[in-house]
Amino acid sequence: MPHDHDTPDSSASTRTRQDATAPRPHFGAWRDVPARIYATAAQLKTMDLPRQPGPPAATVDGWDGIGRKSTITLYRIDQSTPTASTAAQLAAARARSENFVRARVCADCGARPDRAPLATESYGALCPTCWHIRDLRQRQEEAARDRAAAVHTVRTLLRPGSRPLGVLHVDYTERGHTPAGTRRSPAAAKVTVIDANGQLLADPLLRLVSARAKGVPDGAGAPVPGADALTALLSQRTVLVWSYRDLDDLAAGLRSQDAAWSLPSGHVHEMARLTAAWRSEVTPDGDRPAAVAPGRADRMLYLLHQIADTEQTPTMPTGVGV
User: How does 70-79 read in b/e, with b if 16+ C-beta sit within 10 Å?
Assistant: First the structure.
């Protein structure tokens, strides 16, 4: 008697047809390809026990054999099948290759992965993990050099006889968002400037919008004379800011009120860059994370002195292993 629901065989057939018509994943770079799931036809062929690909399962942007950008087809390893080579044929092929064992064993950790290790001139064949460790070590060595350069730069900034320092930080008076969700421009900016000893040089509260605009705080000064006074103060100093972007609203607001604003050309340093270089952190993914902002001028100066007081940087290991 017929049933309304599918039989097991018909369900499997339906899933197969759906899988065949479903869009295949595409990866923008090899680093995005999940490990041990996909492989190219060539990679399957060079496995310890060679396999032949099943249906195409994904694609990745890469380079072809002659250096042109190309979209490369990937296959699922779990859908591949053994090649026709017999055990005797595999043994004979390996016996003819003097370098077979060396090419299949990771020169650093001794692993014998299914897929052939990556061949390098300097380190021999490396498994993916040791290759990643080698890459991380190189990035750490680069970070150590950047740290030393950051320490040198900061010590130069604080050296007696150098151009006077002005540490500048801005706090904004926000006005919320429009009904459409657009952020309104700040009503005012509290600009704090201190010197290398932490002495306050200036802390004006400058209006950045029309005097009739809503949200202007009490005590906000006229933008033109305030901007002129700040420009004169900073013109003879090396200015330290956390990030240029922190000053975008200040500059835009002052310009909207016909006030001039400029920093001394060639004498401005971004504390964010110096701090990230000094922290010299490398994530397990190989990235260099941005530093967290101190949030105040006195904390910026404290951080600056921390960098200057850095002791001899440790020597980074040069080998592949840890």
Answer: eebebbebee
Beta strand pairing status for 56-63 and 205-207? unpaired
For CA atoms 110, 113, 116, 120, give the dihedral sign: negative
Q: 39: which residues sit within 8 A by CB, 6+ positions away?
A: 47, 53, 74, 75, 77, 80, 115
| Calpha distance 194→191 (Å, rounded) | 10
Rounded to whole angstroms, the Cα distance separating 154 from 309 reads: 10
Centroid of chain to Cα 311: 27
DSSP symbols for 134-174? HHHHHHHHHHHHHHHHHHHHHHHHHSTTSPPEEEEEEEEE-
What residue spans define the domains of the chain?
17-82, 143-176+183-308
CATH 3.40.50 fits 143-176+183-308, yes or no: no
Copy the structure tokens of residue 74.
């990937």
Could you list the beta-strand ranges (E) of 87-127.
118-120, 124-126
Determine the Cα–Cα distance for residues 174 and 190; give it in Å rounded to an integer. Answer: 11
- Residue-wise pLDDT for 16-30, tens only, equals 444 556 688 999 988
Distance CA 234, CA 13 (A): 75
pLDDT at 19: 55
Distance (Å, whole) CA 151 – CA 277: 9
Entry pTM: 0.70
Query: For residues 308 and 303, what is the distance between their CA atoms, to the nearest angstrom?
Result: 9
pLDDT at residue 218 is higher than 90: yes
Q: How far apart are alpha carbons 240 and 150 in whole angstroms?
A: 14
